[in-house]
């Protein structure tokens, strides 16, 4: 009989899998015949060989999505029938939860406790919520008076290109697909080249759930090739993107230069997470840890700028550093691991560079700041939970997104000083505040320029709560009823009810 450790080793060493593109209901090779490798970041070994989509494959996928949108069973289905297919997919994901969680951990490196208790259940909840949304979309009758009857209708937009990142591979696919399919659109999805595996499994699940051919097409490939082909395509009606601000700007530019496809962008962040002296400090220490070290810090809303009120600074950072040093970094398939590897060697190198920038500028490393020394971790892309103290808001480590387990600690003197610093950044995705003073908390929520504010908590998500950014964190909202604006057109209809209509030019 094998011990749990032996099973983990076996899973880490399994033979590479292979994945093809999903186009028009069939799994097919790339037109070029090319494939790329996705690595297991824990071991550096090849996890899968994946068909590499390019512009020609995107053309095929868009043509299939167009056919499915204009004709075929999807176009004729009632919203209720669409909702049932999405709900069935949610059930199938639930049935395969364990296997999908393990695959997500192998491909991305996130701890199995996160993929099992966050990524997969949130994906299921997301599809369940949007299954229910399908038949709740409605227009308005608008009482403008006079002899007219006026109403609005919501219609799907058409062919949607969806380009997603590698930090929550399956969940980001769900955020994008749930509302798009609920509204009756068709989709060409491009998973991130670093983590394509679970999206391809999702393709199989949707076919099994009864989604008609061509409604969901999945084209894994590289950003500058397959992603750019989607954002430049003349027959894509909308593109939804989650990723870096830099690429978000390229997507918006491509849309503007081609067919003015509609664009929604969920981009980077540099969230202020604020601890006031009156907070429950134990709770705030745990919250600060969770806000930055969850998913190895690879979260766009991570609390990466930790503002601590000056009077409690020394005590707070000492407690935080002790807790950070106690986190277990290691094989993410072990149930007790807190932090796995970063997703790629490039990301690891980038994080190391940023720690260097911080030190050069005068920041002090209170914890971490390096890769772990354990021999069995040397082939993977591991980094230790890192706390940079004595950071000021003008430093690179306070202004730029590091996207790793590195928190910059800053201090503030009072509410005014805090707000000035908190908002002095190009991003505006999220913010957190820890205080027992409810007036102060709500004042902060009102004044901070961020799309999401957590009070005495952090990283809470629900399919019903909108999420998205201010400033260069993007535009549009995901989730809730708000996201449906991004996936529907509003049509206004005017009906003349007058018995004797008179023409404008009749006298
Ligand atoms: P990161 O830097 O964290 O990898 P990116 O913004 O580069 O984030 O990637 C997010 C997604 O955008 C991925 O699916 C990637 O392939 C895609 N992407 C990258 N560059 C482009 C581009 N020029 N056009 C369209 N998509 C792109």
Task: Tell me about this structure.
The chain is α/β, with parallel strands linked by helices and 507 residues long. It folds into two domains: 4-267 and 473-491, Aldehyde Dehydrogenase, Chain A, domain 1; 272-455, 3-Layer(aba) Sandwich (Aldehyde Dehydrogenase, Chain A, domain 2), CATH 3.40.309.10. Helices cover 39% and strands 20% of the residues. The chain is built from 17 helices and 22 strands. The chain has helices at residues 4-12, 55-70, 73-76, 79-95, 97-108, 112-133, 169-182, 197-208, 223-232, 245-257, 281-293, 313-326, 345-361, 396-399, 415-423, 438-447, 483-486; strands spanning 17-19, 21-23, 26-28, 35-39, 46-51, 148-156, 159-163, 186-190, 216-218, 238-242, 262-266, 272-275, 305-309, 364-367, 386-389, 406-412, 427-428, 430-434, 452-455, 470-471, 474-475, 488-496. Strands 14-15-16-13-12-18-19 form a seven-stranded mixed beta sheet, with helices on both faces. A hairpin with a 6-residue loop joins β4 (35-39) and β5 (46-51). Adenosine-5'-diphosphate is lined by residues 163-165, 190, 192-193, 222-224, 227-228, 231, 243-244, 247, 250-251.
């Amino acid at each position: 009989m094998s011990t749990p450790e032996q099973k983990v080793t076996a899973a880490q060493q399994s033979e590479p899998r292979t994945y093809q593109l999903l186009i028009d209901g069939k799994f097919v090779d790339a037109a070029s015949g090319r494939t790329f490798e996705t690595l297991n970041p824990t071991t550096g070994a090849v996890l899968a060989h994946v068909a590499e989509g390019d512009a020609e494959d995107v053309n095929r996928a868009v043509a299939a999505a167009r056919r499915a949108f204009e004709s075929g069973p999807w176009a004729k289905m009632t919203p209720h029938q669409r909702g049932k297919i999405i709900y069935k997919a949610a059930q199938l994901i639930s049935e395969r939860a364990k296997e999908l969680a393990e695959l997500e951990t192998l491909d991305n490196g996130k701890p199995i406790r996160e993929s099992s208790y966050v990524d997969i259940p949130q994906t299921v909840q997301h599809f369940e919520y949007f299954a229910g949304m399908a038949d709740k979309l409605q227009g308005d009758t608008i009482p403008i008076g006079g002899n007219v009857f006026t109403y609005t209708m919501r219609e799907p937009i058409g062919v949607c290109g969806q380009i997603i990142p590698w930090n929550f591979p399956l969940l980001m696919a769900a955020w994008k697909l749930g509302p798009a399919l609920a509204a009756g659109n068709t989709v060409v999805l491009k998973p991130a080249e670093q983590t394509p595996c679970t999206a391809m499994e999702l393709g199989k699940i949707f076919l099994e759930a009864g989604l008609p051919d061509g409604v969901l097409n999945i084209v894994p490939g590289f950003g500058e090739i397959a992603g750019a082909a989607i954002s430049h395509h003349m027959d894509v009606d909308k593109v939804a993107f989650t990723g870096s601000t830099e690429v978000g700007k390229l997507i918006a530019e491509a849309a503007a230069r081609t067919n003015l496809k509609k664009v929604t962008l969920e981009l980077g962040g540099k969230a202020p997470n604020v601890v006031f002296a009156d907070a429950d400090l134990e709770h705030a220490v745990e919250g600060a840890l969770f806000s930055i070290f969850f998913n190895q810090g690879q979260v766009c809303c991570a609390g990466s700028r930790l503002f601590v009120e000056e009077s409690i600074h020394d005590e707070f950072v000492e407690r935080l550093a002790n807790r950070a040093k106690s986190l277990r970094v290691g094989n993410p398939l072990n149930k007790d691991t807190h932090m796995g590897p970063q997703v790629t060697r490039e990301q690891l190198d980038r994080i190391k560079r940023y720690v260097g920038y911080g030190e050069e500028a005068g920041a002090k490393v209170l914890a971490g700041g390096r890769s772990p020394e354990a021999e069995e971790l040397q082939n993977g892309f591991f980094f230790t939970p890192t706390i940079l103290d004595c950071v000021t808001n003008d430093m690179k480590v306070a202004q730029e997104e590091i996207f790793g387990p590195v928190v910059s600690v800053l201090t503030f003197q009072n509410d005014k000083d805090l707000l000035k610093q908190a908002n002095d950044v190009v991003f505006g995705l999220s913010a957190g505040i820890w205080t027992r003073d409810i007036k102060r908390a709500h004042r902060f929520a009102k004044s901070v320029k961020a799309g999401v504010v957590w009070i005495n908590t952090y990283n809470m998500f629900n399919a019903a709560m909108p999420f998205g950014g201010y400033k260069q964190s993007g535009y549009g909202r995901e989730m809730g009823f708000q996201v449906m604006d991004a996936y529907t057109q509003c049509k206004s209809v005017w009906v003349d009810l007058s018995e004797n209509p008179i023409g404008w030019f009749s006298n």
